[in-house]
Predict the structure.
Amino acid sequence: MDLDSQLPHILQKRVIAHIEDDVFYIHNRRRYPHCDEFVACSSPEEIADCLKAMVTQGGGVQQVVLTSMIYIARLMDRGRVDLSLESFENSMRPILEARKTNTTARRLYQRVAEDLSRHPQMLNRHDIVPFVTEKVSAIEDEFDRIYDHMSDLGADLISDGDGVFTTCFAEHTFILSLLKARNSGKDVTAWVPETRPYLQGAHLSAPSLVQSGIDTTLMSDAMAAHYIVEGKINRYMSAVDTLCMDGSAVNKVGTLNNAIICRHFSLPFHVFSVSPDRTKKTLEDIEMEERDPEELFVFENRRITAEGVKGVYPAFDKIPRSLITGIITPKGLYAPDQIMDIFDLEDD
Amino acid sequence: MDLDSQLPHILQKRVIAHIEDDVFYIHNRRRYPHCDEFVACSSPEEIADCLKAMVTQGGGVQQVVLTSMIYIARLMDRGRVDLSLESFENSMRPILEARKTNTTARRLYQRVAEDLSRHPQMLNRHDIVPFVTEKVSAIEDEFDRIYDHMSDLGADLISDGDGVFTTCFAEHTFILSLLKARNSGKDVTAWVPETRPYLQGAHLSAPSLVQSGIDTTLMSDAMAAHYIVEGKINRYMSAVDTLCMDGSAVNKVGTLNNAIICRHFSLPFHVFSVSPDRTKKTLEDIEMEERDPEELFVFENRRITAEGVKGVYPAFDKIPRSLITGIITPKGLYAPDQIMDIFDLEDD
């Protein structure tokens, strides 16, 4: 199956990242919907720089990592990268290390790298591109099935008349859940915080939801409680960047504020995760990214505050499992304290 | 006493509003600190339009209303407004009705109008300007004493090492409290949410605090919980736009989010109010202002989202008294349920 036909423009795989004439193109989420354009990259380092600058982010990083593996295979085929596993790893390293908190993409890379190490005979000009392309394509298909199943579970949670709020850009699982709920006849509205400083809510979530035919309202990051009191919002759903084995999670800064507000009003707070990171037992194991506060200070080349003011931009929040109602995974919907048992160490 | 010398630039009375050659000048808070400029008004309607557009806001509205009374008196002196109480009221009406939720300025106007009705002999060209000017000047002096006293109480609440967060621009009482705490040798830091859509935190609070020598960090509206968990923030303080007789309050949208977060972490949530509005028994009596969502959609002249997305901009939040730790008033620091008794109906 290919989910792309059901997805809004910016979530389609070849929009997020594609290769054309040996140039790697990344869709520029930072300027969308104002501009609909790509950033061209000519080396793994340039791809990594785009990820650091958040040209794409969230699940976009995963698609860039997958497409980058095909790109590196092509460079090997052209003789620009040595035909060895070590060179493959060295080329991928800057891309994998560009953003450190979400580890999903790194784990997908490890699967392909392990396949390559088991089949070293494929490391030749004739086979490397088809081999990597087939592995990546299989992962893309697997994720389409996973997203399709998880959004069935998400749609089931939504009741007729629900107002759902979120944080940042929750992408496939979130948008498909709302779409399927609406297609099954439920009246559902989306309430999107703009998500400063990069405005992923305004730039990405709200336009994608509207393209999917969902009644969507943009609000500032400070308005959720206001509309919960008014009865407009009664549920929270978001993907998370990392799920720990103990059922706690890491997601875009602002998610903790929203989780606390849900708890205060006894609203359900559900998150989507394709799998926990088995190397992260608890939130203590997470490496948290601190971004440059200049990104908060400057908007559209205009400085918003005076010299002498300090700034902060933590990329992510840690969400204790006590604030999470349920976690939607490819294996089903679970309470946080079930994650360890369901995703045991033997199983993948 | 005149507090102005202790206050940052934008809180000084003649900066907020002044009259020069029959033109009424309002300091443009919307463009500060990027530009430090005034908007010139030539009629009560133009002054009202500035208030509606939030050229100044919060306590700035109060100073504009006070200075407007002198302006109208001058128009009476010039023969441009009839020398009658009815004309005085008609001229002031658009200014008083420009923003409906904060009623403090309206109550100050009523005090001067009542003085005028008790002294109708002052409604003549010779006496009207000195009479109104003296009344306004007495109110300004009274507020200087009130702010000085309330900020003594605020400073007493702050402990050495406190990180204080706020909402929007809490002006005199908040800034003087932090300043006095620091001057008494306490180490105090301010954590300022930028306060979208108008960025009063970034434009007004943070620069004013830095001018006052306070260690100040700007954050997005979604980051408070993050820094509470990190132990950087341990207390909330803000002025409120309206205090009800039952001890509940109305303040800038986002204040309810912050109050809930404080409650979750058991942090003190203190507010400043010069007096309750005796016509507002509970939050049910408050007329809430809804602003044009276009103000959310356009950020520094750039449209931030796609066509088809709906928007909201409620100007204020209602804060139930259960979330308020204490209220700092000119009469002292009180629990919300003490307000009714302390400000009884006989007393002013």
User: Anything to note?
Assistant: Residues 128-157 of chain A form the longest helix (30 residues).
